[in-house]
């Protein structure tokens, strides 16, 4: 399993409340839209990261992690597994504390690189499922 309960708890309660959600747009049919809303309800600041750079749930969006002009604590990744590793590398580069790959997003090499860089990481899990249980 890629993310034990202690790591999940630490990311959700201790790591910080600014979450960059990569893949978040105003498409209400996408999982990222609903998960971002749940994160907001639990007190997280959600920062949309999407090529369209749309404002979502009242937060202005950015085209990339590098474009965000303030620190982010957690990078929540809603992109295809083939693209997720590059996002994890960007998360390391911008100084995030943790990376969260959503359900179905798996890249074992990225997992290893991210952990070796000292970040907390969870893979193939959903914070909207985990956070209410805490």
Description:
The mean pLDDT is 95. The protein has helices spanning 5-13, 31-41, 81-93, 108-116, 127-130; strands spanning 18-22, 45-49, 74-77, 98-101, 120-122. Helix 3 runs parallel beside helix 4 (108-116). The chain has 134 residues and is α/β, with parallel strands linked by helices. It contains 5 helices and 5 strands; from the N terminus they run αβαββαβαβα.
Write the layout of secondary structure elements.
Elements: H1 5-13, E1 18-22, H2 31-41, E2 45-49, E3 74-77, H3 81-93, E4 98-101, H4 108-116, E5 120-122, H5 127-130
Parallel strand pairs: 1-2, 1-3, 3-4, 4-5
Helix pairs in contact: 3-4
Which key features would you list for this structure?
5 strands, 5 helices, about 35% helix, alpha/beta, globular, about 130 residues
Give a quick precis of the structure.
This protein is of the alpha/beta class and 134 residues long. The protein is 34% helix and 16% strand.
How much of the polypeptide forms β-strand, as a percent range? 15-25%
Overall outline: globular
Residues in helices, as a percent range: 25-40%
Please list the strands of the largest sheet in the order they lie side by side.
2-1-3-4-5
The averaged pLDDT comes out at 95
Distance between the termini: 19 Å
Give the H and E element order. HEHEEHEHEH
Largest beta sheet, briefly?
A: 5 strands, parallel
Structural class: alpha/beta
Number of helices: 5
Number of strands: 5
Radius of gyration: 13 Å
Provide the low-confidence segments as ranges: none
